[in-house]
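S1.2 Input.
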Amino acid sequence: MTAAAPILPENRQTPQSGQSPEKGQSRLAERAKKLGALNRAGALMGCAKLAREMGQSDRTMRAYAACEIALPDAVLIGAAGALEREAQAMIDHAAKLRALAAQPRGDGK
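S1.3 Output.
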């Protein structure tokens, strides 16, 4: 998964045999939502860092992006956890910055 390439399904798949076209479109829309959400997570955190934090290889992430392999819900949950850890690190650092700014300075300012 690269930062420049959005993760969206590029190939429209036809419904499986015995499946209505509406059901197939619904499944495609759901897949697109999941891929879009994973793409947004990659944009927020950086694709390579997200993959690393999730314990996924770049190759696997690209396979998800290309719809070559199914995108399990566990991957989305892993991405959510990685984002939460990153967000907590940012919140912790923001608190350090505020504490440093609140410290009295020796020059009277």
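S1.4 Remarks. Residues 8-14 have pLDDT under 50 and may be disordered.
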